[in-house]
Amino acid sequence: MAQYNHAAIEKKWRENWEKNPINVNDGKKEKYYCLDMFPYPSGSGLHVGHWRGYVISDVWSRYQLLKGKYVIHPMGWDAFGLPAENYAIKMGVHPAKSTAANVANIKRQIGEIAAIYDWDMEVNTTDPAFYKWTQWIFVQMFKKGLAYEKEFPINWCPSCKTGLANEEVVNGCCERCGTPVTKKNLRQWMLKITAYADRLLNDLDKLDWPEKVKKMQTEWIGKSYGAEVEFPVEGRDEKITVYTTRPDTLHGATFMVLAPEHKLAKDLATDETREAVEKYIFDASMKSNVDRLQDKEKTGVFTGTYAINPLNGAKVPIWLSDYVLADYGTGAIMCVPAHDDRDFEFAKKFNIPIIQVIAKDGKEIENMTEAYTEASGTMINSGDWNGMESSVLKKEAPVMIEKMGIGRKTVNYKLRDWVFSRQRYWGEPIPIIHCPKCGNVPVPEDQLPLTLPEVDSYQPTGTGESPLAAIDWWVNTTCPCCGGPAKRETNTMPQWAGSSWYFLRYVDSKNDKELVSREKADKYLPVDMYIGGVEHAVLHLLYSRFYTKFLYDIGVVDFDEPFKKLFNQGMITGKNGIKMSKSKGNVVSPDDLVRDYGCDALRMYELFVGPPELDAEWDDRGIEGVSKFLKRFYNLVLDNKDKDVKETKEMLKLRHKLVYDIETRFNQFSLNTVISGFMEYNNKLSELAKKEGGIDKETLKTFVILLAPFAPHLGEELWRELGGTDSVFHATWPECDEEAMKDDEIEIAVQINGKTRGVIMVPAEISKEEAIAAGKEAVKDKLTGTIVKEIYVPRKIVNIVQK
Ligand code: ANZ
Ligand code: ZN
Predict the structure, then answer these.
(1) Same domain, yes or no: 792 and 674
(2) 730 with 753, same domain?
(3) Domain shared by 641 and 755, yes or no
(4) Going by DSSP bridges, is the β-strand pair 358-359/378-379 parallel, antiparallel, or unpaired?
């Protein structure tokens, strides 16, 4: 009998599919858009961890194909940005060259997965024909006032020599290179994502996304309701406005803290405190936001000046501390140590009085050892507010404060506008011209793309300017408005620019008139299923939603959410859960495994290692089991295909159970248990074949169709062996008939006084009376006493109680 020869089979069908594409758009089928997060073409190529995501999305795409859909399943390259540029600098090659080589290599490796990517749709963010539209979007945002310039201290990576968005700072360090991040004052381009904060928050409800990701976005946007309260400064004609979410605690404010960057911070110093205050302000300027929030020990300095609590006239000392951030709320807070952890810690350290204003059970605590932070309990020490319920007051206080004329109710967001410029070479040039007469003028749309000029040195300058600033012929230009001499913007866009909208371009990737034609957008967009790692929960996924909403607002597309459904796959790690990386030397390359076991076996093993949403440790040895299953299944089909046995009731039942089990697990995205299901049913069928002298063809065909999304080559081979003349992927996904699945006979345990004494086989639809009668008959020898009770647990147990 033939041996399962994966190499020959896989080669044969790969070539066949090349000639006869299996995923065709006949214009009639319903579309299904299944998208992968496109990769950075880094120099190290793909490892088995990258494979997993692509296998998941391909299995899902082929499933949709078998359900009769036209599947949009594109692939492209996120090729601008720091990793590509750093790699290029390290290897001494121009980023365009190294990127092209990396793309070619990864494309070859992706080919090994046998995914049904439509390469006609391929995009590359560094292709001028693509980034023309990245720049076009920027120009539209500029025209709508959503792209603007601002000078302020930004996160600065001294090693990458570039500014970083808050999102790119992880534990106070550069996300890319791990160097501690400092601050630098720079002119920046900003995108006003905050204008979309409410829509980005509210529309999360529309999305079929993991709750975890929705929660992360909700927290990132960080909407809170509260009040601004104005505290007069003692002895001056000046007020300090604080932002608080707990105006109910106003009577308990015993001090005030300003961010060191607050505009009054220096002014408030007295002759005695000036030196200490200035030193404190300087030290804080050297720390990143993240560091400041994580600092274990609170630091601070008293300014020497007091403010007046506008509610009760109490005098409160004004301090500076870096636990208050300059760019949140008003950069100043009233401190209520009795009810806020950070304030409590600060008050303890600097010996500031603590006044309790909420009592949990109406009683004041003698010696507070920690803050009571819940907004529930009765107000005490709070003048007119005494006796009120804190949770009620929390909601009412903003309005009361507004009426008293000492503040107003407000909404605050944690979300900040997006720092959109980078001082690097390898990015889209920002299409703006600075004219001394006309100000900032966008590059006219018919002159886009504004291409990146060749430079001699693409190393960052470290002066805060991009290497583009050194190219005089490029920088000096004429103003499109007045024709006078003007200068080009030399900052480039961040890595996220292209990835914020690339998914729209795939379906019309060669259009040179529009970003995407409205006709194609209406027909093929949005994305039905987006598959990628959870590390993009807030950055890429929030930016993409923002871009899509903007493009919706200006009429480019007719939907305002890009990704209907999202699936986050877990990571494949090396031994002991360590992330696979070249530097750790634990990278497993798929190439050898494909050679030794075949693409189908590796595809299945990638899914078999564990639930797809969880991380899984890689162990090469496990692939043996999957490979053995494929061999066994191959033999099962070949052994039985010509036997021409008649379908028995048991075969029919098993077939429908198979369809039911596989489909249910598939729809729950439980891909690992789909594969264990295949193994189980393969065993069941082998046994049945022994018992009945073979297996009917319909059952074999059904199994082959179910398996095909996972092991496409073997599926195709066996389908043809079973007489298929067209591709298995043009077969119809089997349906399960729940009636046919039902067991006709079931096993019931017969118990006496709760102890099992026998087992009977009865018809599945047996009535209670019949079941009890049959049970009594089966154990009649042991029924020696008087029967006092007869119990029937449907389809499971008959229990006779005797005395
Ligand atoms: C008084 C108070 C009493 C506060 C209390 C809390 C508890 P969220 O929910 O995150 O918006 N805060 C305001 N601006 C700040 C800043 N720039 N840097 C650091 N902290 C700031 O939190 C708002 C609360 O965080 C505000 O309410 C303020 O402290 C503090 F029992 O005011 B609260
Ligand atoms: Zn001008």
Answers:
(1) no
(2) no
(3) no
(4) antiparallel
Shortest-distance Cα residue to atom 12 of ligand 1: 333
- Nearest-CA residue for atom 27 of ligand 1: 244
Ligand 1 pocket member 334 (CB < 6 A) = yes
CA 420/CA 167 separation, integer angstroms: 12
Annotated binding site for ATP: 582
Give the pLDDT band (50/70/90) at residue 183: confident
Confidence (pLDDT) at 227: 96
Among 412, 446, 461, where does a domain finish? 412
Domain end: 389, 412, 435, which one? 412
For ion ligand 2, residues whose CB falls within 5 Å: 435, 437-438, 479, 481-482
What single string gives the DSSP state of each residue in 633-678? HHHHHHHHTTS-PPPPHHHHHHHHHHHHHHHHHHHTT-HHHHHHHH
What are the distances in angstroms from CA 211 to CA 208, 536, 565, 701? Answer: 9, 14, 12, 38
Closest atom of ligand 1 to 247 CA is 1
Are residues 733 and 748 both part of a single domain?
Answer: no
Separation of alpha carbons 57 and 122, rounded Å:
16
Mutate to test the pocket of ligand 1, among 328, 334, 336, 343 (most ligand atoms within 8 A of CB): 328
* CATH number where 703 lies: 1.10.730.10
Question: pLDDT by residue (tens digit) across 121-138?
Answer: 999 999 999 999 999 999
289 and 252 in a single domain? The answer is yes
Cβ atoms of residues 711 and 604 within 8 Å: yes
Q: Indicate which residue's Cα is closest to atom 14 of ligand 1.
A: 329
Nearest-10 Cα torsion for 473, 475, 480, 484? -80
Q: Is residue 677 part of a domain?
A: yes
Q: Classify residue 514: in a domain, yes or no.
A: no
Indicate which residue's Cα is closest to atom 1 of ligand 1. 244
- Tens digit of each residue's pLDDT (9 = 90 or more) over 75-132: 999 999 877 777 777 777 888 888 898 899 999 999 999 999 999 999 999 999 999 9
Question: Do 520 and 509 meet the contact criterion of CB atoms below 8 Å apart?
Answer: no
How close is the Cα of 269 to the center of ligand 1, in Å? 24
Ligand 2 centroid distance, CA of 468 (Å): 21
Note the pTM of the prediction, 2 decimals. Answer: 0.85
Between the two ends of the chain, the Cα-to-Cα distance in Å is 64
CA of 191 to the centre of ligand 1 (A): 26
What's at 24, amino acid-wise?
A: V
250 and 291 share one domain: yes
Please tell me whether residues 231 and 271 are part of one structural domain: yes
Does any ligand 1 atom lie closer than 6 A to the CB of residue 328?
Answer: yes
Percentage, residues of the chain above pLDDT 90: 75
Query: Do 754 and 714 share a domain, yes or no?
Result: no
Q: Model confidence over 747-756: pLDDT tens digits?
A: 899 999 999 9
How far, in Å, from the CA of 495 to the mean position of ligand 2?
A: 30
Q: Is 249 in the pocket of ligand 1 (CB under 6 A)?
A: yes
Is the minimum distance from the CB of 321 to ligand 1 under 6 angstroms? no
CATH number of the domain within which 768 lies: 3.10.20.590
Query: What per-residue string of b and e applies to 597-608 under the rule 16 or more CB within 10 Å gives b?
Result: bbbbbbbbbbbb
Report if residue 110 sits inside a domain: no
Containing structural domain, residue 747: 743-802
Phi–psi pair at 562, nearest 5 degrees: -80, -30
d(CA 550, CA 676): 45
Residue 614 lies in a domain: yes
Other Cβ atoms less than 10 A from the Cβ of 514: the count is 14
Residue 412 alpha carbon, nearest atom of ligand 1: 11
At 202-232, the pLDDT tens digits run 999 999 999 999 999 999 999 999 999 999 9
Residue 243 Cβ contacting ligand 1 at under 6 Å: yes
CATH number at residue 273: 3.90.740.10
Nearest CA to ligand 1 atom 21: 324
Number of domains in the chain: 3
